[in-house]
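Page 47, continued from p. 46.
Same chain as before, 117 aa.
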Amino acid sequence: MKHLGTILGAAIAGMFVMSVWGAFAGAYGIGGGWFAGFAIISTMWFMNHFIGVHNNDGAWVDMALGIGVAGTARGAFEAGTFQVVVDSLPTMIIVSLGGITGGIVGGLLQNSALKKD
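Result:
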């Protein structure tokens, strides 16, 4: 059940982000985008992590992966072809490399700070 909750929690977060955030930003500009980001992400975080719908058992996978998958799938379904996903692969690779680099640097900084203590 915990895996089903994780899938559903991430899917709900992805659906809200992909359907509501753009509408708020389009209607109200930057302020609407900020409001949507605060309202959606805080509500989804509360539901997924505080209430406990989303269970990651210490893994690095979190709501962002579900939101990314929902956005990618939405683009493919709207276009009616998988080519959209193929075209986005270079961006996904660069973003993944950036995340890996950030994780490594963050780990090194954390180890450095722990050694000073």
